[in-house]
Amino acid sequence: MRAVVFTSPDLPVEVTDVDLAPPGPGEVKVKIAAAGVCHSDLHVRRGEWQVPVPLVMGHEGSGVVVEVGPGASRLAEGDHVVLSWVAPCGECRYCRAGREARCQLAATVVAPGGVLQHGGSRLSRGGETVYHYLGVSSFAEYAVVPASGAVRVRDDAPLDLVALVGCAVATGVGAVTNTARVEPGATVAVIGCGGVGLSVVQGARLAGAERIVAMDVRAEKATLAQLMGATDAVDVSSVDAVEALRDLLPDGVDYVFDAIGKTSTTEQAIRMLGLGGAAVIVGLPPSGARASFEPLVLAEADQRILGSNYGSVRPAIDIPALVDRYMDGELMLAELVSSRRPLDAAPAALDDLEAGQALRTLLIP
Q1: CA–CA distances in Å: residue 277 to residues 113, 157, 274
Q2: Is 315 in contact with 292 (CB distance < 8 Å)?
């Protein structure tokens, strides 16, 4: 099959032929309908995260089950699925407590990663092992994934668009509803209006937030956030983000979501908080990045810093529910898509994302 392979940050990613073994026990093979290009893929290409190489990229996607391995009885050929890069084991103490985003077995796939839950890779090239990315590797014509990482969704939902639910939408909406548990009437600020940030905005709207301040260095993205439910849009390309926020809400806000993940934006998020506020770190920084804050201020103001991994979702429950909310007209997905491209255009799609010229590009194998 054709797949997008990363070898080194010093070399271009290549679209080439790789071999894919059949699914093993508890696994399924999925024909990819669409794969979203995410900032996490840029971290890989830049060499900012340690991954085994060579590696088939991609972790956001959707498709149709075409083969079922032994023991994967909950899925059948022809099922429409959204891929989840957290494939819960269902047995560790976090899964038993309903905290599947913290699954201990899934964490071993994510870091250091490269293999599936039952060990080994199903990918190869010329006899050489090729590794999986986050247990998914959706930048390909097909993927073999753990069955719990292929979440069945309704057949009448558009398969290309629901690919976004597998990462951007689940991460953004989940950060609001699951991690922060934003209450009606709250005030919210969102730093960064890419695919995840705009999903945070939508989550805040669905939660009934009274004020939603969307901030981005690109005015058109902040403006798009207003279509998604933001009450205020701030272009921070030439103004200080904290001062701009305080001009609108002098007492700070109840929740700030850092959807960028840079040291500077995390520090800004903390400084935007009002009394009892929470800064939610959603965007992911390079490995080793460090942010600073003044602990005395945090303690005296009764504030919190929350990390949000994958929106604290329960994939089997939250992903179908988000698809339903889209089909019911409560969520916008098409507006998050900046372009659709063939798999061979993956390098150019990554370039566009790097340059800030794209929200979500869907690769259509």
Answers
A1: 35, 37, 5
A2: no
Count the neighbouring beta carbons within 10 Å of the beta carbon of residue 142.
20
Q: Is the pLDDT of residue 266 over 90?
A: yes
Q: Which DSSP letter does residue 190 get?
A: E
CA nearest to 83, candidates 170, 179, 188, 12:
170
Angle between helices 346-354 and 39-46 (to 10 degrees): 100
Residue with structure tokens 């005296």? 300
Separation between Cα atoms, residue 246 and residue 60, nearest integer Å:
36
Contact 279, 266 (CB under 8 A): yes
Query: Who's near 184: CB < 8 A, 6+ residues apart?
Result: 207, 208, 209, 210
Chain segment 168-194, per-residue pLDDT in tens: 999 999 999 999 999 999 999 999 999
DSSP letter for 147, please: G
Q: What is the DSSP string of 34-61?
A: EEE--HHHHHHHHT-S---SSEE---EE
Task: Give the span between the Cα atoms of 133 and 362, in whole angstroms.
Answer: 17
What are φ and ψ of residue 341, in 5° steps? -135, 155
173 closest CA partner among 134, 228, 99 = 228
pTM: 0.96
Contact residues for 349 (Cβ-Cβ < 8 A; gap 6+): 37, 339, 341, 358, 361, 363
Interval 90-114: pLDDT, tens = 999 999 999 999 999 998 887 667 9
d(CA 39, CA 352): 11
Q: Which domains does the chain have, with CATH numbers?
A: 2-166+333-364 (3.90.180.10), 172-308 (3.40.50.720)
Q: Which tens digits make up the pLDDT trace of 184-238? A: 999 999 999 999 999 999 999 999 999 999 999 999 999 999 999 999 999 999 9
Cα–Cα distances in angstroms (integers) from residue 151 to residues 157, 220, 310, in the given order: 13, 33, 15
Q: Which residues does 354 contact at the CB level (< 8 Å), separation at least 6?
A: 42
